Fold each of these.
Amino acid sequence: MIPIAKPQLGEEEKQAVLEVLDSGMLAQGPRVKAFEEAFAAMCGVKYAIATSSGTTALHVALLAHGIGAGDEVITSAFTFIASANSILYTGARPVFVDIDPATFNLDPAKIEAAITPRTRAIMPVHLFGLTCDMGPIMELAAQYGLVVIEDACQAHGAEYRGRRAGSFGTGAFSLYPTKNITSAEGGMITTNDPVIDEKCRVLRQHGMRRRYYHDELGFNFRMTDVHAAIGLAQLGKLERFNAARIANAAFLNAHLTGVIPPVTPEGQRHVFHQYTVRVKGGQRDALAEHLKAHGVGSMVYYPVPIHQQTFYVNELGYDLQLPETEAAAAEVLSLPVHPALSPADLETIVAAVNSFDEV
């Protein structure tokens, strides 16, 4: 079976972990600092703050900007639930806006109508490795005095008009094993604001500025040096990994039939965390079964939009229609695009997809 994802871990990661174990410095230490500095450089920002996961990165980033009870944050319902849950953790409320059907990302033209006196932030989600249309989003944020928290958890190295994801507002990245690079588990916040940088560092470590002096309520959201060592080794491979994903996606785009391939708008660099097609005619699930029978893994991200999740409907009272989001949830299917794919794997994927029309 060709898997939908396959983490690429080698001798560099193993050696880096062994060096940390031999050093005896296992908690947040010099490897975390080095990883933060390298990650900031990759994104083209001044600061990066390592955390324990992408979810905690989003949570801390929101808190650092003072988002809390009574506030509203505009975001997408077509994403992993952690995007919206991180808003709930602060006491704020997610306000869902529909997506652009071509990109699966927030439709900037629909954001302004969702802004109310309670709106404090916009959280664009750079889904599947493609940045949102950040030009109009940043213009709206400036016009209304809103914070921008980029959910870049799937967009390591993605670009919009020459700028990296995570460099427009305050960024949040995931380093989960299936992402474009991993630290086994972890997250990263990016910012150019020294006040936000300092606030994030305090929040992730029990509210401490000095050891055992707790100035405010904080959390244990730290990254260990073991995880940072893996992440630092992975970061050195990010461009190679992304180049392979982009090349694999180009091959699939050129050869697949019967499905609608993903798009890359002009001026953007899609790094294909997922290669996600649309399958019309209610045939998505049948295609997934067909691929499985032919040895090709696939996955539906995400079959139930957040505004239709049981907790959001029953406990939080969400009752709205997002037609493009709901249509995408019924039609999307992600195919393997990871760097471990061989030319033969790509041929197998194409043959399996294209043969579905013959069934």
Note: The chain has two domains: 11-235, 239-358.
Amino acid sequence: MTSSTRDFLRPHLMTLPPHRVMIRAIEARLFAETAPELAEPVLDVGSGDGTFAEIAFPGKVIYGIDPIVSDTHEAHQRRVYRGLSVADGKHLPFADHTFASAFSNCVLEHVEPLTETLSETFRTLKPGAPFIASVVGNRFPSQLLGTKILNALGFDGMRYGRWFNKISVHRNTLSRADWSKRFTDAGFEVVSCRPYFSDAALALFDASHYIAAPSLLTRKLLGRWLIAPPLTLNWLWEPILRPLYEAPAPDDAPYYFFILRKPAAQ
């Protein structure tokens, strides 16, 4: 089955709470479309708990780095990665020109310092290697449901947007032009940039955080988001999420999917 025919929504429904399902399923489809370009070995900048790589890139030779010990331990248990390191992006424990490709899924908006992380990623890639990255854009806080409701009531809705960015640990929510500049300043060529996740999807994403709040307790107590995945009520969300998953990409959006490349003459 090719990436264009694989369904990434249902695997995520069996793994994650609804707010994560709707964004991660779309991202998995986008990243899987680039899988043929990701020559091995692959570097995952911000590997987290390994769920995303497990679904999007099965069978790939991937090395992951992440600063969170508990997430890295969970990723190790999934046996997805050839190697895992607890490290931050400003000091990658790899030699120059180690990797034939790299990806980063919704990590760079959290990273501080961003400049050093991009420089380190660039350093560890072979000349001509692609770097695929999804990032949060500057429209994110203004398109949240809470922001829109408060604005409609005559309040400063952006206070909610700034609060949501803070609890999400979003340190870099940049425009498409500013993200492009940060990548090019690090030495990368911007091959393409594709907006994804509509404003309507983001509003539902915001609301579903509160509906799925009990899953935070489940994860803390059991180490997983869902109590018993085969019996999950997440199936009830599929008719709602399916149209969002299958919708065409908007002209602009709260998230951006970049395909970058390290110049060959390096």
Note: The mean pLDDT is 90.
Amino acid sequence: MKGIWTKISVFVLMICTLLPQAVLAAGEKADLVVIVADTRGLTGVLHAWGTLYNDSHLYFSLLTIVLIPVIGLLFGTIADIVMRTIGIDLEHRELSEH
């Protein structure tokens, strides 16, 4: 079993090492690739989000990093309120551990 994991590890390491060479094989054409979001058919928040992505990847990344925990906190709070409303009390539960 140890031999198969060694072979898999070597294969993954080889792929990670050689993959950038395949990208560099494109030559000068590789410099012409631009990554943008298509915002032609979008409106509202989606259009603003796509425009932010196109304008600055740094601001897009920072806003995403900030928004994910905030949205998680909001959803968790809403779920807690809903569970309390329907009668599920997670604060005063009895543990059945022995």
Note: The radius of gyration is 24 Å.
